Amino acid sequence: MNAALPVEVLKQHLIDPEICIRCNTCEETCPIDAITHDSNNYVVDPDICNGCMACVPPCPTGSIDNWRLVVRTEAYSLQDQLGWDELPREQPLPEAAGAAPAEADATLAPAPAAAVAIPSAAPGASVPPWSAAHPYVNLYTHKTPVTATVVGNYRVTGADTDSDIHHIVLDFGELPFPVLEGQSIGILPPGADAQGRPHHARQYSLASPRDGERAGYNNLSLTVKRVTEDHQGQSAHGVCSNYLCDLAKNDTVQVIGPFGHTFLMPNHPRANLIMICTGTGSAPMRAMTERYRRRIETGENGRLLLFFGARTERELPYFGPLMKLPRDFIDINLALSREAGQPKRYVQDLIRERAAAVRELLADRNTCIYVCGLKGMEVGVLDALREVTMQAGQDWTILHDVLRREGRLHFETY
Ligand code: NAP
């Protein structure tokens, strides 16, 4: 008669605020809108999350993969989670629930899918190419950042243009900071936000290959655009981009990371890369291209096909060095949208124009595709890829699934 009533146990999905870099990937990936955020934290609604795991593989830090067994009626609320600086410790369950934790896990908690399901909304792969090298992630966190020294900072767009894009080189001295092309790092800007809390880290893709901006040095480079307006064109001051663009040689910077375990390049000989980017989304493409350029003599390289969008030639970062690369090394296609006297072109227009070359590479299982830059290009690029595939009588839906499953189609858009 005195036996405790059984209580419903929930395996609650939580995000670790200490590791999360607020990149928005989880919120974008969640197929049922269970993830939201405020200026402090990304949080999971316990009333909506069904534990489908779709958000877990794309998270570049692993901060998304945290779970606590709780009594369902006492689940951490959104309000609780928004106020956290760190995850709460695991609490013992009351006896009535503790009697059958395994059962609770299996029947009451939203069961994580055995094989990770790729939600239809995710345009890219959640696994790296099979031959990608093993990445290190989270070596340095918000609590344990590493100090890097600025050894170079210069503008890579025409001085007469509004696009103030900088190439910034950071050196790590004796401290280990192993990276791969396609990975990113977090920069902790000094100072505090309007609520007096230290600024969160801002994420930037590497623009240099794994062996350093200068081969053999423990350094790396970033491509940073000074943000002076928001996506709607309203005046806005980018906290971290302005901080970075104004750094002088020998200044020091707090860095966390590295991050990213899927947007990685293939590591096997004769792998082809189709690279599609806009503006500063060119950073990982520069890193991958430079990796290939440094081994040009080895005969290991596959083909490189680049689609690069910018407003004008003078606003296209690294235009000069890019155009000096040998044409038999990289096939360069520039889509300029605001060049005087020329029709407006986007990368997806050029993909259609180069349909034969794109199709030939798509037919080769050694080809991986990388898309980086403006969020808006995602749909346009997918439509263009669908069109060029269907022109050849192929089914894009099938090919798209294969590319995702084999880790051969990757997106990093903001
Ligand atoms: P941007 O100068 O605003 O745009 C670059 C080009 O893309 C312009 O020609 C623009 O044309 C065109 N464009 C606009 N909408 C498009 C669409 N729907 N489809 C295809 N092309 C389109 O680029 P940005 O300011 O450098 O921004 C690049 C983006 O990359 C940012 O969102 C940034 O967050 C992201 N990113 C940066 C890094 C990094 O490490 N720095 C890494 C990853 C991603 P019009 O404006 O003339 O229409």
Biggest beta sheet attributes: 6 strands, antiparallel
- Calculate the terminal CA-CA distance, rounded to whole Å: 59 Å
Helix run count: 11
Instruction: State which percent range the strand residues make up.
Output: 15-25%
Helix content: 10-25%
Give the neighbour order of strands across the main sheet: 8-7-10-5-6-9
Radius of gyration: 23 Å
Shape: globular
- What small molecules does this complex bind? NADP nicotinamide-adenine-dinucleotide phosphate
The strand count comes to: 15
Low-confidence stretches: 99-120
Order of helices and strands: EHEEEHHHEEEEEHEEHEHEHHEHHE
Describe this structure in words.
- The chain is 21% helix and 22% strand.
- The chain has a six-stranded antiparallel sheet with strand order 8-7-10-5-6-9, covered by helices on one side. The chain has a five-stranded parallel sheet with strand order 13-12-11-14-15, sandwiched between helices. Strands 1-4 form a two-stranded antiparallel sheet.
- Strand 2 (35-37) and strand 3 form a beta hairpin.
- The radius of gyration is 23 Å and the shape is globular.
- The longest helix has 15 residues, at 377-391.
- It has eleven helices and 15 strands.
- The chain starts with 8 loop residues before the first strand and ends with a strand.
- Helix 8 (347-353) runs parallel beside helix 10.
- The chain has 414 residues and is α/β, with parallel strands linked by helices.
- The protein binds NADP nicotinamide-adenine-dinucleotide phosphate (NAP).
